[in-house]
Amino acid sequence: MARLHITVARLGRLDWPRYAVQDNKGRYWDGKWWTDNPRRARLHHREQDAADEATVLNDCIEPRRFSASVAISVEHDEPFTVEQVRDVLERSKVWLILPEEHDLEGVEIDVFVDCQSLKELE
Description:
Elements: E1 6-13, E2 16-23, E3 28-29, E4 34-35, H1 47-60, H2 82-90
Antiparallel strand pairs: 1-2, 3-4
């Protein structure tokens, strides 16, 4: 299941706006669960109240975590140490490029490299 992105949606008329919590699947929070019907959404008079509720709901979502071994190949003309590679990795961001066709719509995958466990392979 893809991670939910919870935001604030503006509902109501232009002269009488109301705010609701909405997820990235087009559902609205009714105070207990998600509904597809905007008429059943829990409405807020102030946008900040809806934003506060969205923040609480975002904080309740726990991402699933996985572990895998990764081989890192480094080519350089000059000699370098494992500590230098570790330093570069710690200051870098690892990007994952997802294939165009996959079954995880809306997924966010963060890759974390445990640089302290880095060792050179023989």
